[in-house]
Amino acid sequence: MTDAALRRAADAEHGVFLAESTPVVRRALDAGCRPVSFLLPQRYLETAAKQLADAFETFPEAPVFTGDDELLSQLTGFHLHRGALAAMERPAPRPVDEVLAGARRVLVAEDLTDPTNLGAIVRSAVALGWDGLLLSPRAADPLYRRAIRVSMGTVFRLPYARATEWPAGLDDLNKAGFAVVGLEVTEKALDLGTPEATALRHANKLALVVGAEGPGVRAETLKMCDAHVKIPMPAGVDSLNVGAATAVALWELAGIRLASR
């Protein structure tokens, strides 16, 4: 089950997700997630017994499986070098209106299918004080193992919901009073960090739409945005990796939310 799309479908069907590394497992437990089982390298048992002792005691029904490195690599399809792997009960999906309620800064991931990129932008969003995440129907699963690992478990701190239709799902943001901004190089895009973008930085409610690596934000989505923004760059350089670009934009547009911390 190394294919992300197959994994997403199977995990959702069985109501589980996988948390990799002891720090991530701990953060999942601290967020209220319930373990189904643990998988630990034989060489790590003693250390894990100390670091996860309270979890083993709180959830005695969750079995602890173990084996040598070669066996676990054959079983999982990757080298389990971060200490622990846990299968955990998947939380119930949140409705979009619940995620938007009370939020002032929302990140919108359109067709961001790479779980590594998604994990990176989730980590940036949490670090920079953003309140929620809205996913398009084709975006990656925030609870995919690699996405969780790259986010360092911060995904458990960021409320998220998945739109059922797209780009019609942006209407929910409009109805909730959000100014919707697309991060894309277009003819009318405003340079971030300039006076022209001041109104956006100080908007009471703001949603930032980022697209997939390569294709960027869809043309039909950009038509529904209130404004477009871009990162000013020297001649000959036209883009950053979506994770890096999103981090820059999240910082620039955090506005009042970040300044009031």
Count of helical stretches = 13
CATH class of the largest domain: Alpha Beta
The main pleated sheet reads as:
7 strands, parallel
Tell me the span between the first and last alpha carbons: 42 Å
Q: Order of helices and strands, N to C?
A: HEHEHHEHEHEHEHEHEEHEHEHH
Low-confidence stretches: 257-261
Total number of beta strands: 11
What's the CATH topology label of the largest domain? Alpha/beta knot
Structural class: alpha/beta
Rg over CA atoms, rounded to whole Å, is: 20 Å
Strand arrangement within the widest β-sheet reads 7-6-5-10-8-11-9
> How many domains make up the coordinates?
2
If classified by CATH, what would the architecture of the largest domain be?
Answer: 3-Layer(aba) Sandwich
Oligomer: single chain
Q: What share of residues are in beta strands? A: 15-25%
Assigned CATH superfamily of the largest domain: SPOUT methyltransferase, trefoil knot domain
The percent range for helix content is: 25-40%
From the spread of the alpha carbons, the general shape counts as elongated
Mean pLDDT: 89
